Each structure stands twice: as C-alpha cells, then as structure tokens.
Amino acid sequence: MRYSSKVVERLVNQYKEISLLGKVSALLGWDLNVNLPSRASETRASQEAFITKLISQRWKSEAFKADLASANKLKNLNPHELAIIRNLNHSAKFYHKVPEELIVEFSEASSRAFVAWRSAREKSDFSIFAPHLSKLVEINKLIAGHIGYKKNPYDALLDMYEPGLTAKECTQIFAGLTEGIGDLLKSIKKSKTYKTQKSSEDQEFPVESQKQIANFVLNKIGYDFNSGRMDVSAHPFTTELGAHDIRITNRYSPHNFIESIMVAMHEGGHALYEQGVDEEFVNTPLEGGVSLGIHESQSRFWENQVGRSEEFVDYIAATLKAFYPAQLAHDDARSMYLKFNAVRPSLIRVEADEVTYNLHIALRFELEEALINGKIKVDDLPKIWNAKMKKFLGVVPSSDAEGVLQDVHWSYGSFGYFPTYTLGNLYAAQFTHFMKKEIDAPSAIKSGNLGIILSWLRENIHKHGSYYWPNELCKRVTKKGLDPKYFLDYLSQKYAALYV
C-alpha cells in the first residue's frame, strides 16, 4: 500500500506493533479457553495484563498521539489513508481517554472473571461469579465516563463494538422485532406442525462422528485448515492470531448432532471473513472485520441462510444418514428439514432457533443497559433474568447454569456486545436478499457448490476488511441502509411454509 503522507506511513508502522501485540494477547486468550490448567489463572491474568499494558503504552505514546493529531489536519489524503485515520481515531478513543491503570485493571479483572464464571457455571452458583461481575460493571461505567457520551453511558460501550450504535436505536430495533417475532411465534404455536413435532434428545449421536461431520462442513464452506484449526471450548469462539492463523472452537452434545454443525458453520463464517480480507491490509488499521454487527452477519449467514436452508439440509441428509443410519432411519426430507428448524422457546441462547433467538438478545440488551445505568444490581440478576425469560420466551430456568450464567461474554467485560448478534441477523437477511438477485444461491447450496457463494461474499464483503464503515458497506452491497424488514420478511416466509 502506498501512502501520500509520511505521517500516515509512520502511523501505520507504529500500529503494526499494536497489531502484533494484539495477536499475542489473542493467543493467550485462546489458550485460556482451550488449554489452561485450572491453577494457572493468576499467572495468565498477569501475562495478559502485561501485554495489555504494552499495547496501551503504544497507543498512548507521545509520538503516536502527535502523528495522529497531525494526520487529522492533513488535506488531500487518498481514500485508503482517510479510512486508516478514521479507524485509528475510533480505536484511540479508548486508549487516549481511558487511564492506563484502568485498562490494565480491566484486563486482570476479566481474566479472573472468566475463571470464576467457568467455575460458577459448572457448579450452577451465581454467587461465585457475582463479585467479579460487579467489578466489571463498575469498570465499564468508569470506561464509559472517560470515553464520553451524550445521554446514555451505554452508548459509549455500544460504539466500541458497532461504530455509532446507540441505546435509543437498539430500543427501536428490538421493539419492532419483538412485536413481529411475537406475532409469528403465536401463529407457529397454533399450527399442527408445532403441536406434533417430536424431540430427538433421547437419541445418542457419538461425539467423534460429530467432529468428522463438522470438519466436512467446514471444508465444504471453504474454511482453510492450513490457515486455522478447530478445537473444543465451553463457549465456541473465533480468534485471529495472524493472517494465516484463524482459529475456531466447537462444542459437542451427545444428544444433539445439529448443534455442532451449526456452531461449525457459525464460527466458520467468522473465520471465512478474516481469511478473506485483502492481505494488503495485514497489520494495518484496515485489517479484520469492520464491526461485530458485520462479523455476525457472516456467521449468521452461513449458520442460518445456508445451514438451515431446505437446500442445504437436503444436500447433507445423505451424509448424516450414513453416520447415523439407525437414529435417522425414519426421517424423510420434510422431517429432517424440520429438525434443523424446529421452533421451540428454550433456555439457552446458543441453542435457540431462528425465530426466538433475538428475544434472547433483547433480554440481554435490557439487562446490560439497566446495569450500566444503575437501574438494577448484579446480585439481583438471577431473579430478574428468570422474570424476563418468562416474559420474552415463556420459559423459566431451573438453575443459574441454564440461566444467568450461560453466556461467557460478561466474564470478558464485554458490555455492548450482545446487540451486535441481532444486527448480524438483520444484515445477513438483507445481504442474502440482494445476493439472490445476482447469483442462484439456492441451486448452489442444493448442489453443494458453495464456492460460488463464498466468492460473492469475498468480492462484496470480505476483501474490504475494515475499509468501509458498516452502514457504508451495507449501502454498497444493497443500495440502502440497514432495514429490519428483510429479516422479518425472511422469517415470516420461511416459517409460515414450514409450520402449517
């Protein structure tokens, strides 16, 4: 990449160290989730805090701050340079406004909180995690105050994951979605299909065969195993350790073979995005996905628009029956399709169906916004969680593990993250609508020729990395900004035909 300004070139060279340190931190995080011995948590917290301090020092160096200030005054920069400065300004808000000691404290607190969360979840005891969560909530309040906001401190946290997103916008989005989804869910529950659908949870599907199927699916969608790997963790995730080291994790339930397939496609979607970014952007402020909302659009696209489509289920059915001849002996095309798309209000977000999934996110958004604004207390979360589960989904957890402790994100201190899952669903449906105007996606899926779809994503989304801001990218792909109508139409058309 050529730069017209020596100042911008210096900034990019300085940023390279930040990027490399960030990948070292990501490696520590991957190991924390996948391999870390139970007694090593304090050592890991110190290691991550040290790397965090080094990253913070580079962001806060006088040379870097001076060059960024100078770059903001430059005229006639080329589009790439303008995007670089925009991205640096956005990220710098955290490091330039939040004191270094608070950043380091946040890193240490989240490392300890993860270990506490894991123990609390295993024992289904929220009290083990509560003091750690309380500390992370207070730190996030301080961070929001340092970054600054107009009306709502939660806005400052949302902006770190999705540039410009506000609590007001989230409230409007969720209001429309919960109403539309609520109406659809009522219709589904009245259908004969809903009343007669059966669960296959009493059957067993060996984990080893699930791993083979997950590998098959990842290869089919185009995940490059020479530039990544799949391991096991309590909560599946994707992490970038380098341009050619994009790792994912999965989890397996012996009574639910569909979950591991969907996780593989979901995390594989994240990984494909990172593997498809223009290599010219490596270790520059343009590397990686532009926002979590756009990132989630890629994971949710492969999981739902492809993985749960009638065409894909038809394509993979023969493979599944080869692995599970006895368990799936009585399944025809229709019943197999229904297995992948069974609507059943449930307790666990990551196991939720397409129709009810965003109700889980709406619940978490309301809780996060209330916590950051001091409307509710951490100690009251289990009780409030259960009440909102009954309100949104009509089910109530019987334990902390299947309720307030089910998600890992709060142990990372990631407040403002959850709404991006819903944004991802909205973007995915909108992108798919316009993709189908350019390529015959259903036929490609039915034949297993998924390279055609991946090529479209590479050209329209992946290769751009963080060059275009989310709404600008959406307008480039679909000729308009984000519109929840595409998602609601997609759900209504699909499930009205499925649940009759």
Major sheet: 3 strands, mixed
The CA-CA distance between the termini, in Å, is: 56 Å
Strand order of the largest sheet: 1-3-2
Low-confidence stretches: none
Strand content: under 5%
Q: Summarize model confidence as the mean pLDDT.
A: 96
- Helix content class: 55-70%
* Structural shape: globular
Structural class: mainly alpha
* Rg from Cα: 22 Å
Count of helix runs = 21
Order of helices and strands: HHHHHHHHHHEEEHHHHHHHHHHH
- What is the tally of beta strands? 3
Structure description:
With 500 residues, this protein is mostly helical. It is 65% helix and 3% strand. The chain has 21 helices and three strands. A three-stranded mixed beta sheet has the order 1-3-2. The longest helix is centred in the first third of the chain and has 29 residues, at 6-34. The mean pLDDT is 96.
Characteristic key phrases:
single chain; mainly alpha; three-stranded mixed sheet; 21 helices; 65% helix
Give me the secondary-structure topology.
Elements: H1 6-34, H2 41-60, H3 62-71, H4 79-97, H5 100-123, H6 126-147, H7 153-161, H8 167-190, H9 192-196, H10 207-221, E1 230-232, E2 238-242, E3 245-250, H11 257-275, H12 292-306, H13 310-323, H14 333-340, H15 354-372, H16 381-393, H17 419-438, H18 441-447, H19 451-460, H20 470-478, H21 485-498
Parallel strand pairs: 1-3
Antiparallel strand pairs: 2-3
Helix pairs in contact: 1-2, 1-3, 2-5, 5-6, 6-7, 8-15, 8-21, 10-11, 11-12, 12-17, 13-14, 13-18, 15-16, 15-17, 17-21
